[in-house]
Specification:
Oligomer: heterodimer
CATH class of chain B: Mainly Alpha
Structural class of chain B: mainly alpha
Radius of gyration of chain B: 21 Å
Strand content of chain B: under 5%
CATH superfamily of chain B: Transmembrane di-heme cytochromes, Chain C
Shape of chain A: elongated
CATH architecture of chain B: Up-down Bundle
Number of helices of chain B: 10
Order of helices and strands of chain B: EHHHHHHHHEHHE
Number of strands of chain A: 10
Distance between the termini of chain B: 33 Å
Structural class of chain A: alpha+beta
Helix content of chain B: 55-70%
Helix content of chain A: 25-40%
Number of strands of chain B: 3
Largest sheet of chain A: 4 strands, mixed
Largest sheet of chain B: 3 strands, mixed
Number of helices of chain A: 7
Bound molecules: protoporphyrin IX containing FE, iron/sulfur cluster
Strand order of the largest sheet of chain A: 8-1-10-9
Distance between the termini of chain A: 94 Å
CATH topology of chain B: Fumarate Reductase Cytochrome B subunit
Number of domains of chain B: 1
Shape of chain B: elongated
Chain lengths: 255, 230
C-alpha cells in the first residue's frame, strides 16, 4: 500500500467529540485514556473574535522522532501512519520526551498514542474517528489526494479567514495527518518547522546498538577464552605443586 | 608432616562479603530491568510498570550501599580508594603480562599486593562508572519530561556507556574469579596460602613479616592468620 494520510479539517469540525468516543470504544482504551483531545480555541480581541475546535492528536510524522527514539520497535511507520505495537512496548517513556508535539503519554506502564488504526486501514477500513465524524472534517486516503483536497478546502476557507492554510505538507518529512487551519500554525501552538534532535539519531543508530553489541561480544569472548584459560591455569598449578614437592625434598636432603 | 593441618588466610570479613553480594544482586537486577527497556524479548518485565519500578528500587539500594559501607568503615574506604588509584612500578610491570594472565598464566608475574593491578583497575573503573551511571540514571529518573528531546538522549547515551563499562568490568571480574578459582575468598572469606603466594605474594609477606612465608602450625585445627587490615 502507498502512503496514506488523515485529513483533519478544523474549518469543518463542529466539536461534537464523536471521534473521541468512537476511538475510546473502538480501541478499548482505559478509563481516562484518550488518543484525541479537542479544545475550543478563541482568538482575537472582542468584538473581533474567531473560534475553532483544535484537535490535539498524533501528526503521524514521516520522520517521526518517536519511531527514531523507540528502542523496542513498538512504534513504526505503516503506510504513512505511525503504528503502535503495544506488545513490544517496554514502557521506557522515551517517546514522550522525543515527540515535538507532546503527543505520547504513559498509561499503565505502556505508551498511549493514536495507532492510526493501521490494523483497520490494512484491511481497507477507515479508522474509528474517520468512520464516525458526522461533519466530514476527518478523511483518510492516499496522501496525494488528501493533500489536494486539503488545499481546496484551505482555499475556500481563505475567503473568510485570510490566513487559512494547510499544515503538514513539509513538516518533518511531510505529516501523515494534514491539518486545514483557519489561521497561522503558531496561533494553534504548532511549530512552523519542528526538528528531530540529532542526539536522538546518534543515540538510537549509534551508541545504543554499539553498547549492546560490545556488551554481548564481551560475554561471548570471555566465555570462549574461559575454557582455554582455565585449562592453562590448572596445568600451571599442577606444575607449581610438583616443583614445590621437589623443592621440599631437595631442602630436606640439603640440611 | 602432619597431614590434617590446614592453613587459611582471612581475606574478606563478613560485612565486606555481605556488601559485595548485595552489590552483585543490585547490579544484576539493574542490568536485567534496564535491558528490558531496550530488548523486546525482555519487554514483558516492564508490563504494568514492574520493570521500571524494580529498576528504581534497585537503583536506590545500589547507590545507598557504598555510602552505607563508607559511613560504617570510613578508614577502610579511604584506604581502598587510595589503593585503587595508586599504581607503582610493579603494577605496570604486572599489567604488561596481562594478556598472559588473561589466558591463565599467573606464575612468574611481578609479585602483587593485596589487590593485583588488574583488580585495582577493575575497582577504579567500577568506582568511576558508579558515579556516571548514578548521575545519568538520576537525570533519567527525575528530569524525564523536562530534559527535552535533545538532552534526554544525551543522558541516555551516558547511561548506556556507563552500563557498558559496568557490564564489561563485571564480566571480566567473574571471568577471572572462575579462571583462578578465587570464589572462596568471597564466599568463605578465606584463601589458601598457595593461592595467596601465587596471586598476592607481597600481601602475604606483609601479613607475616617475621615468618618466612607461611608457617604450618603444629596443630590439627585449621588456623587462621588474621589480617590486621580492611
Ligand atoms: C549497574 C547499574 C545500572 C545498570 C546496568 C543500568 C542499566 C540500564 C539500562 C540498560 C537502561 C536502558 C537504557 C536505555 O534506555 O538506553 C536503563 C535505564 C534507566 N536507568 Fe539504569 N542502570 C543502572 C543504574 C541506574 C541507577 C543507579 C539509576 C538511578 C538513579 C538508574 C535509573 C535509570 C532510569 C531512570 C532509566 C530510564 C528508564 C526508566 O525510566 O525506567 N539506573 N538503565
Ligand atoms: S506527532 Fe509525535 S507521536 Fe505522532 S508520529 Fe510525530 S513524533 Fe510520533
Ligand atoms: S514507551 Fe513504548 S512506544 Fe514509547 S519509546 Fe518506549 S518502548 Fe517505544
Amino acid at each position: 500500500m502507498g502512503q496514506n494520510a488523515i485529513l483533519v479539517d478544523l474549518g469543518q469540525c463542529i466539536g461534537c467529540q464523536a471521534c473521541i468516543v468512537a476511538c475510546k470504544t473502538g480501541r478499548e482504551l482505559a478509563p481516562g485514556e484518550a488518543y484525541i483531545h479537542i479544545r475550543e480555541d478563541v482568538r482575537g480581541r472582542f468584538p473581533n473574535l474567531t473560534g475553532s475546535f483544535v484537535h490535539h492528536r498524533c501528526f503521524h510524522c514521516a520522520d517521526a522522532a518517536c519511531v527514531a527514539v523507540c528502542p523496542t520497535g513498538a512504534l513504526s511507520k505503516v503506510d504513512g501512519l505511525t503504528a503502535v505495537d503495544l506488545a513490544k512496548c517496554s514502557g521506557c517513556g522515551y517517546c514522550v520526551d522525543a515527540c515535538p508535539y507532546g503527543i505520547p503519554e504513559m498509561v499503565d506502564g505502556h505508551v498511549s498514542k493514536c495507532t492510526g488504526c493501521t490494523d483497520l486501514t490494512q484491511e481497507g477500513q477507515e479508522p474509528w474517528c474517520v468512520q464516525t465524524c458526522p461533519s466530514g472534517a476527518l478523511k483518510l486516503g492516499p496522501r496525494e489526494s488528501m493533500l489536494s483536497l486539503a488545499r481546496e478546502r484551505a482555499a475556500l476557507l481563505a475567503k473568510r479567514f485570510t490566513s487559512a492554510q494547510v499544515y503538514g505538507e513539509t513538516q518533518l518529512g511531510g505529516l501523515g495527518a494534514l491539518f486545514v487551519l483557519p489561521d497561522e500554525p503558531l496561533a494553534f501552538g504548532l511549530p512552523e518547522q519542528p526538528q528531530v534532535p540529532t542526539t536522538i539519531t546518534a543515540w538510537q543508530r549509534g551508541v545504543q546498538p554499539l553498547t549492546q553489541g560490545i556488551t554481548g561480544l564481551s560475554v561471548l569472548a570471555t566465555a570462549l577464552a574461559f575454557v582455554f584459560a582455565r585449562r592453562e591455569h590448572h596445568r600451571e598449578k599442577r606444575a607449581l605443586a610438583a616443583q614445590a614437592a621437589q623443592g621440599e625434598a631437595g631442602d630436606d636432603s640439603g640440611r | 608432616m602432619t597431614a590434617a593441618v590446614e592453613t587459611r588466610i582471612l581475606r574478606y570479613r563478613p560485612r565486606q562479603r555481605l556488601v559485595h553480594w548485595l552489590g552483585v544482586g543490585t547490579v544484576l537486577t539493574l542490568l536485567v530491568t534496564g535491558l528490558a527497556l531496550l530488548w523486546p524479548p525482555l519487554s514483558f518485565i516492564a508490563w504494568g510498570g514492574v520493570g521500571p519500578t524494580l529498576h528504581r528500587v534497585g537503583a536506590v539500594l545500589f547507590m545507598a550501599l557504598p555510602f552505607a559501607y563508607a559511613l560504617l568503615n570510613p578508614r577502610q574506604t579511604r584506604e581502598l580508594l587510595v589503593e585503587i588509584f595508586t599504581y607503582d612500578r610493579e603494577d605496570w610491570a604486572w599489567l604488561k603480562h596481562f594478556p598472559g594472565y588473561f589466558l591463565g598464566h599467573a606464575a612468574g608475574l611481578p609479585p602483587q599486593g593485596r589487590l593485583n593491578a588488574g583488580q585495582k583497575l577493575h575497582h577504579a573503573g567500577t568506582f568511576l562508572a558508579f558515579i556516571t551511571v548514578s548521575l545519568s540514571g538520576l537525570a533519567l529518573w527525575f528530569l524525564k519530561g523536562s530534559l527535552g528531546a535533545t538532552w534526554l538522549p544525551v543522558m541516555a547515551m551516558l547511561h548506556d556507556v556507563s552500563m557498558l563499562a559496568v557490564t564489561v568490568l563485571f564480566v571480566g571480574h567473574v571471568y577471572f574469579t572462575f579462571v583462578y578459582d578465587a570464589l572462596p575468598a568471597m564466599t568463605t572469606g578465606y584463601v589458601s596460602p598457595e593461592y595467596a603466594r601465587l596471586e598476592h605474594a607481597r600481601w602475604l609477606e606483609e601479613l607475616t613479616p617475621a615468618a618466612p612465608a607461611v608457617e604450618t602450625p603444629e596443630t590439627d585445627e585449621p588456623t587462621e592468620i588474621v589480617v590486621q587490615q580492611a
